[in-house]
Amino acid sequence: MPEPEFDQPADDAGESADDSTVESSVDWSALPEPLRVRLAELGADALGEMAKVDVPQHLRPVAKFAPTKRARLGGVQVVAGLRDSANFRTAVVEWLRKNRPSTLEVTSPDPMTAAAAAVLTGDEVALHYVELVTRRVGDATLRAERDAAVVRAERLESELERLRSERSQLDGATERVRADAEVELERLRKRLREQGVKLREAKDAAEAAAAEVHKIQERTADEVKRLSAERDRERERAETERGKAQRAIADAEVARQSAREARQADEVRLALLVDTLDGAVTGLRRELALGEGAGPRPADLVRGASASQGVVGRVEDPAALDRLLALPVVHLVVDGYNVTKTGYPELSLSDQRDRLVHQLAVLAARTGAEVTLVFDGAGVVAVPAAAPRGVRVLFSDPGVLADDVIRALVTAEPEGRPVVVVTSDRAVADSVRRRGAHPVPSAVLLARLGRV
C-alpha cells in the first residue's frame, strides 16, 4: 500500500525556530532499514498520546490514524519528525521513559533496542550502535543470500543427479531399441525381397487386366453414347408432348375462365336489366295512373294540346340532375379530375380526391344511386386502400386513360339501364351519349354537391 503524502508545513507556533536543524552525530539518511522501522514504531506509539502542542504540524494528520496503521502508513513522516524536531524527539523520549522505560536502555543486550535508545537520547555511543546494527543487518543479509545459494546449489545437484539417472536409463533403452530395430530391419528386408517378386507378378497381371479393362471401357463408352442419344431423343419427344399438354390445359383453362366471365357478365347485365325494367314499369305506373284502377280524366281528353313524351333533354341545372338520379337503379359515373380541377383546382391532387370522394358518398347515401368515380392512375404514388361506403373509386392502369375507362363502364352496362356520366370533356360526353348515357357537365354536379 503506498504511503500517504503530506505537505511540509511551515514552522508551528509551538515549535522553536531552531527545530528545523538539529545537530546530531548520527546520519539519519544512512540508518539501516530495521532501525528506521523501530524508530517509526516508537514515535508512532508515543504520537497517539502526546499533547497536541508537542506534535509537529505535518504529523498531526498521522496522529489521527488508527494505532495499527500509524507506523505503517506514516512511518516516513514520523522518522522525519524525529530527525528534524528536537521538541518532538524530546516528547517521544519522555513518553517512552514514562510508559516503556525498557526501550531507552542503552545497555540493553539487544543491539537494535540499544541503537534506537541511543539515537533518540542523542547518546555519544549512538554512532557505534548504528554501525553495529548496520553490520549485523548486512551480515544477516549475506547469510540469507548464502543460505539461498546453498539451497539452490543443492537443488541443482539433485536435479543433475536425476538427469544423469534418466540419461543412463535412456542410453539403455536406446541400445535395446537399436537392437530391436536391427532385427526388425532384417526381417523387413527379407519380406521386401519376397514382396518384390510378388509385385512383379502382380504388375504383369495388372497390365493384362488394364488392357482388358480398356477394351471393356471402350465398349461401355460406345454403349453409353448410344443410350444417351436415345435418351435425349426420348426426352425431347416427352418435352414436346408435355408442352403440348400444358398448352392444351392452359387453353382450356383460358376458355373456361372466359366462359365463366362471360356468363357472369351476362348474368349481371340481365339482373340489372330486370331491375331497370321493373323500376321503369313501376315508375310509369306511378306517373300514368291517377289512382288505383282509375280511367281517363276530363283533363286527359282536352284537344289542342299534347303531353310531354318523357324524353330527357340537355342537363343544365341541378334539378335536372336530381331527376336523373331519382331513376331506378341509376348508375352515376364521374370523371374525377375533370370535376375537381373545375371546382377546387387550388388543392393538391390528393386533397381534391378526398374532398370529391366524401361529397359523393353523401350524395350516394341520399339518392341510393350506384356511384363510380374514375381517376387517371398516372402519377398516383399511393392508391387509397378503401373508399367511403357507396362510392367505387377506380384508378386507370398504366398506359390507360380515365376517359377510356369511363367509355368501357358505359359499354358494360345493359341496354335500358339509366347511366349518368359527369364530365366537361366534349369528346367523352359525345361518345357516352351515343352509347345511351346521359352526359352532365362538371359544373352541374358541383352545384348539386354544394347543397349536400
Automatic annotation (TrEMBL):
Coiled coil (residue ranges): none
Composition skew (Basic and acidic residues), residue ranges: 224-244
Ranges where the record places region Disordered: 1-28, 224-245
Domain of life: Bacteria
InterPro entries per the UniProt record, alphabetical: YacP-like (IPR010298)
Compositional bias of kind Acidic residues: 1-21
Protein name per the record: Predicted RNA-binding protein containing a PIN domain
Organism, scientific name: Lentzea albidocapillata
